[in-house]
Design goal:
Helix content: 25-40%
Distance between the termini: 13 Å
Strand order of the largest sheet: 13-14-12-11-17-18-10-19
Number of domains: 2
Structural class: alpha+beta
Number of strands: 24
CATH topology of the largest domain: Aminopeptidase
Length: 466
Amino acid sequence: MNQLINEWIDAHTQELLDDIKRLCSIPSVKGEAEEGKPYGDGPYRSLNLALKIAEQYGFSTRNYENYVGAADYDPSLPRCLDILAHTDVVPAGEGWTVTEPFEIIQKDGRLYGRGTSDDKGPLLCALYAMRALKETGVQLKKGVRLIMGADEECGSSDIRYYYGIEPEAEMTFSPDGDFPLINIEKGMFHGTISKTIKEDTTLPRILSLDAGLVINAVPQKAILRFEGLDLTSTEVENAMNEIQELCQVTCQITGKDEITVVGVSAHASTPEMGRNAGLAAILLAAKLPLSPSEALSYLMKITELFPYGVTDGSGIGIKMSDAESHDLTCTLDLFHMDPISMEFKFDSRTPIMANEENCQNAAIQVIEAAGFDCVDFSMIPPHVVPADSPFIKTLLKSYETVTGLKGECLTTGGGTYVHNIKNGVAFGALMPGIDTNMHGADEFFDIDNIVLATKIFAEAIQNLCM
């Protein structure tokens, strides 16, 4: 461990924090494509600020048509290591209490704001690790490139564009996960469940239900709209109180004919940490004095397929687990219902043992038996890099050297940029056991974690590229 480099990082910590604040203040949620801005204005501004910061510190940069940016430690060196991070973020969502999502503050040893831990903060930790090496005069023998994308949260089309132009490096890590190191990423299974229904105008009735912002996050808020229902009645009040206690959510009358249910968002890879507002809203509808209808009966079937608080896929017949990659998870994240149709989208993270027969076909059989249509069902295979590879051993050694903690390989249900990179792993930037509320309200990044991650990255780059 190079003491000079660690001292440099300590001396430049506030500068790093200020750069994270600058970058995270841009609301880089994917928007409508514009000329020269494939993901809208926010991702465009965020990507270009990241490139500007890299240029400011003396790195050679390239902008790949505003899909991706790259910063090279020394472009004359043969490329050996890619560090793959992203400048886009998920929508701000609601429920923020410490600060507004894009008003980044430093409080109680943390930075709060959207993107601080996913993934702008970790991106800049990696850049500062490169800067620390450069400004302390480290002469690498092999090249390292920081690749900065702008569409990780919505499908990673940016990286497909980049790798259509550039080859993969010999080794790749993404600071978009947890330390010590993630060498197994579960597979993914997504699908849309739909049903056309006959409109029933008998009152009182439910007019609509909407919940969820993105498919990879448990919905925090659901809005129910009604016709002919007296929201001031004792029956309604009792039903709301019962659901609040049963589901640990908040139910509020937010309009003349509207009830809003507020739960807790969570990443789709850890749905057990959330409280699904969409499913709680359906359970509330079941307890309200509404006229029986086809719409209500099919909503109730959804809670049989996806029971509230059950995230193992058992409702649709796909519960499974293996020793290497552990349990399957499944969460219903996007909800829409109106008088003539309903549509729901789910996100499942599957262990290595999952395949089309025991997962996709099994789910379709159960869902169709319940009377729904299955649309756009697809599976993405898991990603595995052998734990005994020299690359992984070097990363774990770097982690142990800086932290003094035991380095070991982990499995995640989260899909990172390296999911399709042959020799790619997620390496940091979050220390073990820390939940930073990424994808939820009050996202944060501990300052101690920021400093430690930067030192670990600097150590790893030296060990891999000297």
